[in-house]
UniProtKB/TrEMBL annotation:
UniProt xrefs under InterPro entries: RNaseH_sf, Tc1-like_DDE_dom
Domain named Tc1-like transposase DDE: residues: 42-116
Organism of this sequence: Austropuccinia psidii MF-1
Protein name: Tc1-like transposase DDE domain-containing protein
GO MF annotation terms: nucleic acid binding
Keyword set, alphabetical order: Signal
UniProt region (Disordered), positions on chain: 68-93
Signal peptide: 1-19
One Pfam assignment: DDE_3
Length: 132
């Protein structure tokens, strides 16, 4: 599993995760090291992201829908939109994932997790480093 976030001018460092995790692990491995610094950066430079407020778009996985997750997000003033987060029309990162997946699958099929992570981050054609 891969977690990422972006705004008009910035992308976070991708977080690679192994299998399912608890909410505590999600907070420790994703939200605290990835999401909170991203939010802090946006608050310091709101003009770069066009003064838009942050909306955290997540799919409807149980870990995202748990009351403890909502409580943590409320504590950190993180807002989530109403609606189907899996829809590519409403969740822009789904379009990025799809484009990356299509481009990568045309090139080759990585045989190890390390090679897959390298391809996602740095391989040419379309990578997270080039995502717009």
């Amino acid at each position: 599993m891969v977690w990422g976030a972006f705004c008009a001018a910035m992308r976070v460092r991708l977080v690679f995760l192994n299998g399912q995790m608890t909410l505590t692990e999600m907070i420790k491995k994703v939200y605290q090291p990835g999401l909170l610094p991203f939010i802090a950066w946006m608050e310091k430079a709101p003009w770069i992201c066009f003064h838009h407020r942050l909306l955290l778009m997540e799919n409807k996985a149980p870990i995202h829908m748990a009351q403890a997750s909502t409580d943590w997000q409320n504590q950190h003033k993180i807002q989530k939109p109403d609606g189907p987060a899996d829809s590519p029309n409403l969740n822009p990162i789904e379009n990025i994932w799809k484009t990356m997946k299509n481009q990568k699958s045309k090139l080759y099929q990585p045989q190890t997790v390390d090679k897959l992570q390298h391809a996602i981050i740095e391989e040419p054609l379309y990578s997270w480093a080039e995502a717009n």
